[in-house]
Write a structure and sequence with these properties.
Helix content is 0%, strand content 60%. By secondary structure, the protein is mainly β. It has a single domain, classed as Thrombin, subunit H (Beta Barrel).
């Protein structure tokens, strides 16, 4: 399992067993849970503008629109 806190401390992203889970830190409300084959890493960019997701085969840069 890998855990990463957003820089603004509003969200936490967990990756485990080819699944990604994003929680709102205040109240631990589930925002997203998704299965992604070969998932191994997820983190927010330095300014929280993007979510970086890595698998054993590909990498993705997703715009953070969680607000």
């Amino acid at each position: 399992m890998q855990i990463h806190l957003s820089n603004n401390e509003k969200y936490v992203v967990l990756t485990y067993s080819e699944s990604i889970l994003i929680l709102r830190l205040d109240g631990l409300e589930q925002i997203l849970m998704e299965y992604i084959p070969y998932l191994c890493f997820a983190a927010f960019s330095a300014n929280d503008e993007y979510l970086l997701v890595g698998t054993w085969k590909n990498g993705f840069v997703l715009e953070n629109n969680l607000e």
